[in-house]
Amino acid sequence: MARYNFKCSDCYSTEELTLSVAEFLSLKDKEGFNTRECKKCNATTEFIRIFNSISSKISRSKDEISAIAKEDVRKIVEKVKSGDMKTILDVYGEKK
């Protein structure tokens, strides 16, 4: 279950909701955050999603990114050398 933080557009109080990703997407698609009742001011109003300083973003150093890219390149080269036609067409494109 993921935690989502929202702010009341009337009183600016914050509220944390614990929802599955499917529940969150369902509410978002139905604009369910536009008609929530605020627990602090009791107004039925729009809730705006806020992002805290703590997030699920993963940071990588340049060296880590380079190592991952080199490994990906090595795998692609192996596939091309083995004659994998799908990979060859992905890399070089189709003949015209």
Helix amount: 25-40%
- The strand order across the widest sheet is 2-1-5
Count every beta strand, where a strand is a DSSP E run of 2 or more residues.
5
The first-to-last residue Cα distance is 50 Å
Total discrete domains: 2
| Overall pLDDT confidence | 83
Roughly how many Å is the radius of gyration? 23 Å
Shape: elongated
Largest sheet: 3 strands, antiparallel
Write a structural description.
There is one protein chain. The chain is built from three helices and five strands, in the order ββαβββαα. It has 96 residues and is of the alpha+beta class. It folds into two domains: 2-50, no CATH class; 62-92. Strands 2-1-5 form a three-stranded antiparallel beta sheet. β1 and β2 (14-19) form a beta hairpin.
Task: Summarize the structure in short.
The protein has helices spanning 21-29, 62-81, 85-92; strands at 2-8, 14-19, 36-37, 44-45, 47-50.
Characteristics of this structure?
96 residues; 3-stranded antiparallel sheet; two-stranded antiparallel ribbon; 5 strands; 2 domains; 39% helix; alpha+beta
Describe the SSE topology.
Blueprint: E1 2-8, E2 14-19, H1 21-29, E3 36-37, E4 44-45, E5 47-50, H2 62-81, H3 85-92
